[in-house]
Design goal:
Number of helices: 1
Strand content: 25-35%
Oligomer: single chain
Shape: globular
Largest sheet: 7 strands, mixed
Order of helices and strands: HEEEEEEEEEEEEEEEE
Number of domains: 2
Distance between the termini: 33 Å
Length: 298
C-alpha cells in the first residue's frame, strides 16, 4: 500500500504496541497473488454462500454450533473472474428465493458444490464485505440477493495505523479524518478507542468501520487515544490522509467538518491544527504518506 511524503512530526515506528492480524510484513508478487486467489476462487465454482447469524467461529474449520443458517445463495460456474492484484471478484450470484430463517446476517461460510468449507468471510451492506447484501435483516421465505462478493488473499490484506491522543486539557472538541485515494475504492478507514481493538462509536450510532472515500467527524475527550486504521485491498495505491482537530460544529457527527467562525490561520499542509500536543504515528510504513489539509477555512 504505497504512500507519499510525510511530515517530520509523523514518526514511523517499526512495531505495533498491540496485536493486529491484518498487518503483516509478508509481501508476495502480483503473479503469485493472482495464482493463489484464482486457486481458491475455482473451488467455489457452483458453490454456495451460507449466511449465518452471529457469532462467527474462530476458524473456518470450527463447526457450526448455535448459529442459525439464514440463506444460501449459489455461485455460478465459474464463480469468479480472474484475479487482479490478489483480488478475485465474483460473477453474478443466484438469489436464494426462500430464506431458511429470519435473523440478522453476521458472517458467511463459503463452501464448494460438495459442501466443503473454503473460507469464512464478512457479510455487510458495503463493498468492504466478502458477501454484500442490500440489507442484513433477513426474513424467512423471503428473497436474499447478493450484490457483490470477493475473495482477497490474506497476504494482501495489509493495514496501517495512526494514533491521535487528545491533549489535556482538550483544546479541540472534534476530530475530522479523511482518507482518499483517487485510483482505488479499496481503502477502508476504521476508528478504535480507547484501545486498538474496541470499535469507536458515538452513542447508539454505527461504529466508524470500513469508511471509504468519505470524510468523518467525531468528538474527542481529553487524554483519550483514538486509533485510525487504514486497511487496503490488494489493488490499493497511493493515498492521502488528512486529520484536523477543531471546535465543535453544528453539523452532525459523521459528516464533513467545516469551520465557519472564526476562520483559523492554516499553515501549508498541516497534519493537525488546534491542538499543541498532537501525536500522529504511522505504523509499519515501508513507504511515506502524503499528508494534506482536509478542511479549508471559509
Amino acid at each position: 500500500m504505497p504512500g507519499g511524503s510525510t511530515s517530520a512530526t509523523a514518526t514511523p515506528i517499526t512495531s505495533l504496541p498491540y496485536s493486529d492480524s491484518g498487518t503483516s510484513a509478508l509481501k508476495i508478487s502480483a503473479a503469485a497473488a493472482n495464482a493463489s486467489a484464482d486457486a481458491v476462487a475455482t473451488l467455489l465454482d457452483g458453490g454456495t454462500i451460507r449466511i449465518y447469524t452471529a457469532p462467527q467461529p474462530a476458524t473456518a474449520d470450527t463447526a457450526i454450533t448455535t448459529q442459525t443458517l439464514l440463506a444460501s445463495p449459489i455461485f455460478g460456474s465459474p464463480a469468479f473472474s480472474a484475479a487482479v492484484a490478489g483480488l478475485a471478484t465474483a460473477h453474478a450470484v443466484t438469489h436464494d428465493t426462500d430464506a431458511a430463517a429470519s435473523g440478522t446476517a453476521s458472517w458467511a461460510r463459503f463452501v464448494t458444490s460438495g459442501g466443503a468449507t473454503v473460507f469464512d468471510g464478512s457479510v455487510g451492506t458495503t463493498s468492504a464485505a466478502n458477501c454484500r447484501l442490500g440489507s442484513t435483516t433477513i426474513t424467512q421465505h423471503g428473497t436474499v440477493s447478493v450484490t457483490s462478493s470477493f475473495f482477497l488473499i490474506p497476504a494482501n490484506q495489509t493495514a496501517r495505523w495512526y494514533l491521535y491522543t487528545a491533549p489535556t486539557p482538550v483544546e479541540s472538541n472534534e476530530l475530522g479524518v479523511f482518507v482518499y485515494s483517487a485510483g482505488s475504492n479499496n481503502l477502508a478507514l476504521s476508528v478504535f478507542s480507547p484501545d486498538a481493538v474496541t470499535p469507536y462509536q458515538i452513542g447508539s450510532s454505527t461504529a466508524f468501520a470500513s469508511v471509504r472515500n468519505a470524510p468523518i467527524q467525531f468528538p474527542v475527550t481529553a487524554g483519550v487515544s483514538y486509533y485510525l486504521k487504514i486497511a487496503a485491498g490488494g489493488n490499493a495505491g497511493d493515498y492521502a490522509i488528512s486529520v484536523l482537530a477543531g471546535p465543535t460544529d453544528s453539523a452532525p457527527a459523521g459528516v464533513s467538518f467545516v469551520i465557519t467562525e472564526p476562520a483559523p490561520t492554516v499553515p501549508p499542509c498541516p497534519i493537525v491544527t488546534g491542538a499543541t500536543s498532537t501525536q500522529l504515528l504511522p505504523t509499519c510504513t515501508s513507504g511515506s504518506i502524503t499528508v494534506r489539509c482536509l478542511f479549508a477555512p471559509s
